[in-house]
Amino acid sequence: MSKTLKVLLIEDDTIEIMKLNRAMSSLNLKHQIFEANNGEDALQVLQKKKIIPDIILLDLNMPKVSGIEFLTVLKNDDTLKYIPTIILTTSNNQKDLLECYKIGIAGYVLKPLKYEEYVSKIETLLSYWSINALIKV
After folding, report:
1. How far is residue 25's CA from residue 43's CA, in Å, rounded to a whole number?
2. What is the pLDDT of residues 54-71, one digit of tens each?
3. Which of 22, 39, 79, 126 keeps 20 to 30 A from 116, CA to CA?
4. 133/39 Cα distance (integer angstroms)
5. Residue 52 Cα to chain centre, angstroms
6. What is the pTM of this model?
7. Helix, strand or coil for residue 74?
8. Do 107 and 86 contact (CB within 8 A), yes or no?
9. What is the per-residue DSSP string for 40-68?
10. Where does residue 63 rank: exposed (0-12), middle (13-18), buried (19+ CB within 10 A)?
11. Could you give the angle at which helices 115-131 and 14-26 cross, rounded to 10 degrees?
């Protein structure tokens, strides 16, 4: 049985935020989406521990605190390090990919150009995590 997820989307591009929300709506998914516009804002939300997401969808290229900087802080927090973090990015840079896996991500998903492919990837990703056994932090 799949469960409703609390998903923290960390994305600085308004169009990408709208695209995810549109995809969720078209798939009729009822997951809760919480948004942060950059890594700094996300860390502030997470460190208050009022909202603890089941998974994090993280863009890499952001102002203030980059995705990799965010990951480094997250994975050094004894409570938050267990939250599965999936990179959702346009960067197919091998250096980024290797660095993210070294830090401890749960997945690395390239955003496709075609909307239909994007919707398919989001559906697969959220389906997988909604049936996965997750650690409650």
Report:
1. 27
2. 999 999 988 888 899 999
3. 39
4. 26
5. 13
6. 0.94
7. helix
8. yes
9. HHHHHHHHHTS---SEEEE-SS-SSS-HH
10. exposed
11. 70
